[in-house]
Amino acid sequence: MNTKEVMITQEIKKVKNVLNNLIKAQENGDINMYIDCFLHVEKLINIGTDNDEYWQGWPNFYNYMRRMVELRKGLHIRSANTSINISNNGDTAWYAQLIDTCIETKGDPFRLEGFRHSGVLEKVDNQWKIVQSHISVALDESNDIMEN
Predict the structure, then answer these.
(1) Cα separation of 19 and 5, whole Å?
(2) Cβ burial 87-106 (10 Å sphere, 16+ → b, else e)
(3) Predicted TM-score (pTM) of this structure
(4) pLDDT, tens digit, for every residue of 90-132?
(5) Cα atoms in the Cβ-side hemisphere of radius 13 Å centred on 53
(6) Can you list the domains of the chain with their CATH numbers?
(7) Strand, helix or coil for residue 51
(8) Mapped to the 3 state alphabet, what secondary structure does 109-137 carry?
(9) SS3 86
């Protein structure tokens, strides 16, 4: 491996660590570990699975997620098929993964397997931080959204 490939491999490991910490924080209800995964700026964007789950800016997202992280304590979350890429200049990363977890939407908890989690991280002060995150749910093929 050449020097650039080694650097990219090391950076991918650091990004993977942030994503793993994001999961651990939710499993343990550790809000401090959770907030450490994000860049606390107005350009932060997070999109959830419901129509009203769109947050721009750190304060808006934090105010919602603080309660959610604390409520999820003790739940098992599993990630799979994580793909991470690093930009050529080494200061931006993007990821996609599948997540199995228990979530709450509109006050009702339920187990959800294979939802999609993707996002972007920025390297600031030599630390990777999430600046954009999107969670989506695959539409079951048996659901017909088109009316005849």
Answers:
(1) 21
(2) eeeeeebebebebebebeee
(3) 0.87
(4) 999 999 999 998 766 666 666 778 889 999 999 999 999 999 9
(5) 15
(6) 3-136 (3.10.450.50)
(7) coil
(8) EEEEEEEEEEEEEEEECCEEEEEEEEEEC
(9) strand
